[in-house]
Amino acid sequence: MDTRQQNILEFIIKEYQMTGEPVASQVLVEKYHFDLSPATIRSEMLKLDEDGLLMQPHTSAGRVPTTKAYRLFVNKLLGKKELHLKDEERIRKDLRKFDDNDIFSRQMAQILADFSHNLGFSGFLGEESDFHEAGFSSLLKDIELCQPQSVADILRGFDYFGKKINNLFSRLDEEMEIFIGEENPIEDFKKCSLVISNYEKKDRKGFIGILGPKRMNYVRNIFLVQEAKKMIEDI
User: Fold this and answer.
1) What are phi and psi of 100, to 5 degrees?
2) Helix and strand counts by DSSP (H, E) for the chain
3) Which three-class secondary structure state does DSSP give residue 124?
4) What is the pLDDT of residues 147-199, one digit of tens each?
5) 220: which residues sit within 8 A by CB, 6+ positions away?
6) How big is the CA angle at 138 (ends 180 and 147), to the nearest 5 degrees?
């Protein structure tokens, strides 16, 4: 994939994250001011199709990113500073409102949900009764996940969700993991993405995370989970 194709793919991902609508070549020309004709962009999009990075949901529609495309995008993000400084400061300021008390797990789930506009969750490993999630309605409102079958899958996925997350963490090697679409080890969440991290607090091991559509804002959500982990461990 050359530089031009990388730029086209990145703008398609960002546009689809914002709108949830398939992206047409004309949108890239008019909105992102590519110095290319729509025909040239269509040709490049076809190559990205052939490489498994884009797909066309309907014959007359534009393209949407695949799991493979999101994985390339996320891998490029890791280790880089992508969030605007003003957004970073606002997130850190609100995280400082977090109280160190007996209901902090519920508070953290709500904070993650409020900032991500996805589903936030928090709990302690091995303690399924101390598991909290927030933002479920926001998750089901997303255009990618509001179809009846997707809703049914997600609802089924929340049966024993705390237990599933506990089992998942027993198999993880990294402090933070990002699962995209079909990579998701929880079968009923194959249409979702999951950003999850562990932490240690007062000799207890816990976890926090965000569950959202594949078009979630990875820049914001990765930063949120990283900062929340630091905040919990520093209190």
Assistant:
1) -90, 85
2) 10, 7
3) strand
4) 878 888 888 888 888 788 878 877 766 678 999 999 998 889 998 999 999 88
5) 83, 87, 115, 116
6) 70
For residue range 175-189, list pLDDT tens digits in order: 789 999 999 988 899
Nearest-CA neighbor of 202 among 102, 134, 112, 114?
102
Q: Is the dihedral of CA 151, 154, 160, 161 positive or negative?
A: negative
Whole-structure pTM value: 0.87
Q: Which domains does the chain have, with CATH numbers?
A: 3-65 (1.10.10.10), 85-234 (3.30.450.40)
CA gap 119, 60 in Å, rounded? 33
42 with 25: CB under 8 angstroms?
yes
Distance separating alpha carbons of residues 195 and 184, to the nearest angstrom: 10
| 76: CB partners within 8 A, 6+ apart | none
